[in-house]
Each structure stands twice: as structure tokens, then as C-alpha cells.
Amino acid sequence: TKFIFVTGGVVSGIGKGISAASIGRLLKDRGLSVFMQKFDPYLNVDPGTMSPYQHGEVFVTKDGAETDLDLGHYERFIDEELTKGASITTGKVYSTVIAKERRGDYDGATVQVIPHITNEIKNAVYKAAKESKADVVITEIGGTVGDIESLPFLEAIRQIHSENKKSDVLFVHTVLVPNIPGSDELKTKPTQHSFKELMSNGIKTDVIIVRSNGLVTEDLREKISLFCDVPVEAVIQSTNVDLIYEVPLVFHEQHLDDYILKELELEDRPASKGKW
Ligand code: ADP
């Protein structure tokens, strides 16, 4: 199994979930099987108890888990039914670890964020891979890089990267490139800061997905490529679309699926050839 981790930078709500789901769609269209999961940094065990005014509606999986509404996007994009293993919250991770501690499973050890919490997070990723038997597991990390709450998740995915082959793990980072009203200039500084923040957590992104009101020109892509140490072809614009289901097409036009297949050393499944 290959692993893709999608993180978000600069601000929330820029389409990290849609980007993750779109990547899932593209890989499925290349004939690969895909499983998706979402990590949420909040302390609720699941969103079932959260006000819909705060968090939108709950999405219920076929095995009865009350999960984040992003899972609904995932299912609609990848056309696969997901299970409770697709939704992991900080609350869920902590309650599992504390239950184990009470049972004496840790055999007297001092229970700590690293390694006990991070191990539980890693288990959730590896378990999803084992149970789904998917070619690719795509994991979206909720929140924005730099949040205190998401640190254990970032540490866990860093460890997954270091304990697997380089060609088995891919990091995708979504950012906002704002434009200054009046001068209409697009600014890459927040992207540079976000890249650095991610680096300070030991994660070097392989792909940057840019949301912006303006057109990300070749010059701008080159600049982002230079500062964020990714090839120009790995700087992808998520153009504003009227219908979110167009996002996979937007990515495909920029050859994101080819790039991911190359980086993860994956082959298309022949049956899917010529689908586009
Ligand atoms: P995040 O996961 O970063 O919080 P989401 O993926 O949930 O963000 O997207 C936030 C909102 O932005 C959604 O309502 C989605 O429909 C919209 N959106 C995402 N990507 C695009 C895009 N390329 N064009 C237009 N709207 C988009």
C-alpha cells in the first residue's frame, strides 16, 4: 500500500478536503483502488455530539459511525463506501490510549504523547491499509499546519515517512496565494512560511496545491517551486470552479495523476487505459 498525506497551510477552508478527494478520484480513474480517511484534531470522540451550526452535518458510514462531513465528499468523489476507520479524532485516539492504560496494557510504562499517542495514530493509518487492502490510502490531516492540536498527527505521518520506502509515501500541501486588492499582486510569502512550518515538523512536501483568486502564472509556479523545493510540475493550481466535481479535471489537466503515479512508482491498471 502507498500512502498520501494531505495537509493544509495558511488558512483553513481552502479546499484541502476537496483536493484530497480529487486525488482519490484521479487515482481511481487510473484503475487503482483507494481508501480515504480524515484525521480531526478536536477532542470530541466523534462529531455526533457537535452542533450542526458549528460543524455542519454528521456523515454516517455504512457501519454506523458518526463522522465528519468530509467523508461524504470522499464517498461521492471516489465512489467507494467508507467505514469507521476512515474517521479518526484526537478524542478517539486519547480514549483508546487511556482505556489501554487503565487495562494495564502498557505494563507500567509512563504513557506519553510520543510514542503512545503517535503510535495509536500510526496504527489507524496502517489498519486502514490492511483492512481496505487498497493500493493507496489517502489521509487528510484536519486543521492548519502550525496548530498546536495537529502536532501529534504531523509527528505520526513524519514517522510513517521515515519507516517506509521513499516511493511509498507522498506529502501534499494545500495553500492560499492571496492577491492584494488594488495592485492585484499575488503573494507567495504565506506559502513560503507554511512550507517552512511544515519543514520544522520534519515534513518536506512533494506537491503544493495552490488556491488563489488570480491565475497562477508560470513565473509564479517557478517561484513557488524554487522556495518550496518541489519541481515546477508539482505546483498545481486548484482553479476556482463553479462545481467542485470539476476539480479532478482541473488537476488532471495539470497532469497531477501522472506526477503522483511517477513519484509513488505506481502503474496504471490496463483496464482503465483510455478512460479520459
Ligand atoms: P478544507 O478541507 O481546506 O477546510 P474544503 O475542502 O472543505 O476545505 O473546502 C471548503 C469549501 O471550498 C467547500 O465548500 C468547497 O466546496 C469549496 N472549494 C474547494 N475547492 C474549490 C475550488 N477549486 N473552487 C471552488 N470552490 C472550492
Give the overall shape, derived from the CA principal axes: globular
Tell me what portion of residues adopts beta-strand conformation.
15-25%
Structure annotation, total helices: 10
Give me the strand/helix succession: EHEHEEHEHHEHEEEHEHEHH
Count of β-strands: 11
What ligand species are in this complex?
A: adenosine-5'-diphosphate
The averaged pLDDT comes out at 91
Q: Uncertain regions: pLDDT < 50 for 5+ in a row?
A: none
Structural class: alpha/beta
Order of strands across the main sheet: 5-2-6-1-7-10-11
Written account of the structure:
By secondary structure, the chain is α/β, with parallel strands linked by helices. 41% of the residues lie in helices and 18% in strands. The strands form 3 sheets. Strands 5-2-6-1-7-10-11 form a 7-stranded parallel sheet, with helices on both faces. A hairpin with a 4-residue loop joins strand 8 and strand 9 (185-186). Helix 1 (16-29) runs parallel beside helix 3, helix 4 (90-103) crosses helix 5 and helix 5 (113-132) packs across helix 6. It starts with a strand and ends in a 13-residue tail after the last helix. The mean pLDDT is 91. The chain binds adenosine-5'-diphosphate (ADP). Adenosine-5'-diphosphate (ADP) binds next to helix 1.
